[in-house]
Amino acid sequence: MARTASGKHAFGISDRSGFRYRLKDMRKEWNGMFVGKDEYESKHPQLSPSKVTADPQALRDARPDNAVETTGFIVYTNIDDGIIGFTLTSDLEGTGSIGTVTVTTT
């Protein structure tokens, strides 16, 4: 079996800088590089993303919507007083217009 150097005669060369360090002062990084203690960088947490799970899409014991549909407008009242309330009315009628367009030829 081969013997390896130890103690004060054990030196290593940094993979990052090429500097010589005592072997006991060197560390192995997450990417396999053997570097000095002052050059060591731990693995960033974003390099190990958390497990992605699927979003739930189905509802347990789902029921159809039995609400009565209304065809009225919602009118907000008392906005100037700081009180926002609304009433549902069905007797309003809405109209709108864009304007006029004039086309001339030369």
Q: Briefly, what is this?
A:
The protein has strands spanning 11-13, 20-22, 26-28, 34-36, 73-77, 85-89. It has 106 residues and is mainly beta. The chain has a two-stranded antiparallel sheet with strand order 1-2. A two-stranded antiparallel sheet has the order 3-4.
Question: Strands, helices and their partners?
Answer:
Blueprint: E1 11-13, E2 20-22, E3 26-28, E4 34-36, E5 73-77, E6 85-89
Antiparallel strand pairs: 1-2, 3-4, 5-6
Shape: elongated
* Total E-strand runs: 6
Which value, in Å, is the CA radius of gyration? 37 Å
User: What is the chain-wise order of helices and strands?
Assistant: EEEEEE
Strand content: 15-25%
List the strand order in the largest sheet: 1-2
Unreliable stretches:
none
Instruction: Specify the helix fraction band.
Output: under 10%
Instruction: Please count the helical segments.
Output: 0
Q: Average pLDDT value?
A: 80
What class do helices, strands and sheet pairing give?
mainly beta
Largest sheet: 2 strands, antiparallel
Could you explain how this protein is built, in words?
The protein is an all-beta fold. It has a domain at 9-42. It contains no helices and six strands. It has strands at residues 11-13, 20-22, 26-28, 34-36, 73-77, 85-89. Strands 1-2 form a two-stranded antiparallel sheet. The mean pLDDT is 80.
